[in-house]
Design a protein that fits this description.
Keywords: ATP-binding, Disulfide bond, Kinase, Nucleotide-binding, Rhamnose metabolism, Transferase. This protein has helices at residues 51-69, 109-116, 119-126, 135-142, 146-150, 157-166, 173-176, 191-197, 219-225, 240-246, 281-285, 308-319, 326-335, 356-366, 375-401, 418-428, 439-451, 459-469, 481-491, and strands at 4-11, 15-24, 27-37, 41-43, 46-48, 75-80, 85-88, 153-156, 171-172, 182-183, 188-189, 207-208, 213-216, 232-234, 258-264, 268-274, 289-292, 298-304, 405-412, 432-434, 473-475. By secondary structure, the chain is an alpha+beta fold. The longest helix is centred in the last third of the chain and has 27 residues, at 375-401. Bound molecules: beta-L-fructofuranose. Beta-L-fructofuranose binds at residues 12, 81-83, 101, 239-241, 265-267, 269, 303.
Length: 500
């Protein structure tokens, strides 16, 4: 059988990569062809994304993709982190560098929004968890700035890259849902929310769904990358988490008990796939989100601070002249005393870039636990805390949705982290299936390949292809579950969201 080569552009908070996959019936073979750093830049007190450096990385990656494919490229798809955007003027020129969601410009914006639209109503209309950096808060924070006044169009990050590659503008729906301006029941904009907050929905180009054409690469892009046209760009689940969930290797044919997933990386996104949103007050209180997924699904999940906690520790130690090797730290952490101290991995004190080991130590002290003193102890504290937060999210998602999960799938970069996977199995008391690590890129190419008619089927069919082709690792839960209950009690997260 013939295979076709598709390129996936996957932009993460710390690095971007371009991957090429050979896809055909029974074949899914992914290769990384280019990886580049994503280094935010602070100017004038504002933290920005260096979006032109990212675009250059995309162009370099597409050139490498063409070389690796050794034939025509059958398509390109783009996914990235959510919520952030660039503004364009009437000529389509970018107005300023997109602002990073970890920037402090949204301080005070949630209070301003709440005054115009109470959180209960905002949740009932959008089903999106409260994260202080949601696009609504960024837009309200930007109200009155000359840049927003001059803007004719708003493009979310993957849509901006797509626009530069093709000259055609659209708003992909899975990522649009993270703006907190979309109604998850109708899967279109909520005019009521926008009107109440003074947000002009006319800034957004028309909505697109995963699988929709997004235009061919422009001739200038073909010339710059050495690719032979035409090369179609296809809308995929352009929110990286939406693409990652497509590639969860779950067995659709099961016994009625469903699966939970944890998409790991800078964040851990832990929850369930549903066919309709849960918009109850209990769900809001537990801060669960109803982001839109591929094929009409809902990603019912909670954001957990994720491996950002560890990345930011590594950056701090390095800056303090005490650089650490991740492999050695994880080795040490695996042998360190378990559950000595834990922190709430959902606590917004960890959101902004800053001295992470100190913030972790202080959080431990505040809750009457021993402060981790060495990098190994801090690493163990982070991983125990993440596993504890994974457990809470998996359990509460089931309780709030009335669905059950018999397996936990860990996809994304954390699937390589043996200790994190083992602790997640122990904490949840459920078997963990770890992999694929490059779930976002795989979900990206699978949606393209299906749109091109190269593979068929619904999500179950795409997932069967992932299961049959990608290496996976299995972890059986072990140990004493009551130790995790006791640790959760120390930080008061054991029953978060189950209180009403
Ligand atoms: C993960 C992710 C999360 C989103 C966060 C910020 O990469 O996309 O899903 O909440 O980044 O955009």
């Amino acid at each position: 059988t013939r295979t076709h080569s598709f390129a996936a552009v996957d932009l993460g908070a710390s690095s971007g990569r371009v991957m090429v996959a050979r896809v055909g019936p029974g074949t899914l073979d992914l290769q990384e062809v280019h990886r580049f750093a994503n280094r935010p830049v602070r100017t004038g007190g504002t933290l920005h994304w260096d979006v032109l450096a990212l675009y250059r990385g995309v162009l370099d990656g597409l050139r490498a993709a063409g070389a690796a494919a050794g034939g025509p490229l059958a398509g390109v798809g783009i996914d990235s982190w959510a919520v952030d955007y660039g503004l364009l003027d009437a000529d389509g020129a970018l107005l300023g560098n997109p602002v990073h969601y970890r920037d402090t410009r949204t301080d005070g914006a949630p209070e301003k929004v709440a005054a115009a639209l109470p959180p209960e109503e905002l949740y009932a209309a959008t089903g999106i968890q409260h994260l202080p950096f949601n696009t609504v808060f960024q837009l309200v924070a930007a109200q009155g700035t000359p840049q927003l006044a001059a803007a004719q169009q708003l493009l979310l990050i993957p849509d901006l890259i797509s626009y530069w590659l093709t000259g055609e503008a659209g708003t992909e729906i899975t990522n649009a849902s993270t703006t907190q301006l979309v109604d998850p029941r109708t899967r279109t904009w909520s005019p009521v929310v926008a009107a109440r907050l003074g947000i002009d929905l006319g800034l957004f180009p028309p909505l697109r769904s995963p699988g929709d054409p997004a235009g061919p690469l422009r001739s200038g892009v073909l010339a710059e990358t050495g690719l032979t046209g035409p090369v179609p760009v296809t809308a995929v689940g352009s929110h990286d988490t939406a693409s990652a969930v497509v590639a969860v290797p779950a067995d659709g044919g099961g016994d009625g008990s469903g699966f939970a997933y944890i998409a790991t990386g800078t964040w851990s996104l832990a929850g369930l796939e549903l066919d309709r949103p849960v918009l109850t007050e209990a769900s809001r209180a537990a801060n669960f989100t109803n982001e839109l997924g591929v094929d009409g699904t809902v990603r019912y999940l909670r954001n957990i601070m994720g491996l950002w906690l560890l990345q930011e520790c590594l950056r701090t130690w390095e800056a303090q002249g005490d650089p650490q090797h991740l492999a050695a730290l994880l080795d040490g952490a695996a042998r360190a005393a378990p559950l000595r101290s834990v922190v709430d991995a959902g606590d917004p004190v960890f959101l902004a870039p800053d001295d992470m080991p100190r913030r972790i130590a202080r959080a431990c002290a505040r809750t009457g636990q021993p402060e981790p003193r060495t990098p190994v102890e801090t690493t163990r504290c982070v991983l125990d805390s993440l596993a504890l937060a994974h457990r809470a999210a998996v359990e509460e998602a089931q309780a709030l949705s009335g669905r059950t999960a018999g397996t936990v799938h860990v996809v994304g970069g954390g699937a390589h982290n043996t200790l994190l996977c083992r602790l997640t199995a122990d904490a949840t008391g459920l078997p963990v299936v770890a992999g694929p690590a490059e779930a976002a890129a795989l979900g990206n190419v699978l949606v393209q390949a299906r749109a091109a008619g190269v593979v068929g089927g619904g999500l179950a069919g795409l997932r069967a292809l992932v299961r049959a082709t990608q290496p996976l690792r299995y972890y059986r839960p072990a140990g004493d579950r009551s130790a995790w209950d006791e640790a959760a009690d120390r930080i008061g997260t054991g029953c978060r969201g189950r209180r009403t």
